[in-house]
Amino acid sequence: MSWLGFDHPRIAVAALNPHAGEEGAFGDEEERLLRPAVERLRASGLEVSGPVPADSVFWRAFQGAFDLVVALYHDQGHIPVKVLAFDRAVNVTAGLPIVRTSPDHGVALDIAWQNRARATSLMAAIRWAVVMAKHRALGRSG
Hints:
Isopropylmalate Dehydrogenase; three-stranded parallel β-sheet; two-stranded antiparallel sheet; single chain; globular; 4 helices; alpha/beta; 142 residues
C-alpha cells in the first residue's frame, strides 16, 4: 500500500462465509482463522478490521471506511470492482517484491481482432504501475 501512496492504510479483511459465519452457523473460518490473524496484525501496529461480511465490506470501502479490502478469493474481490469500474479497474498484487498490475477485465477473446476492445483498463494498469514504481524508488516500501 505504501507503493500506492498510503503510509497508514485502513485495511479490511473480507469474511469468507456469508454474514461472517454468524458465530459458526455458516462456517467457523472467521473465528478459527481470520479473527486471530486480524488480531495479530493489529498487535503489530496495522489498522486492520475484520473479518467484515463480504456483502457490505466493499460498499463501506467505497464510502471511505477502508483504503484496502483483502478479498479471500478471486471473484469476491473482482465482482464489486468490475461493477463500479469495469473498463478502468486495475488489479494490484500486494506483497510482492516487484510492482505487478494488470487490467481487471480479462483478455476479451470473444472480441479479439474485431476492433472493439478498449485499452482503458490496460492504460490504467500502466499508470498505477508507474505510480507504484515511483513510490518504491522513493523508498516507501512499508
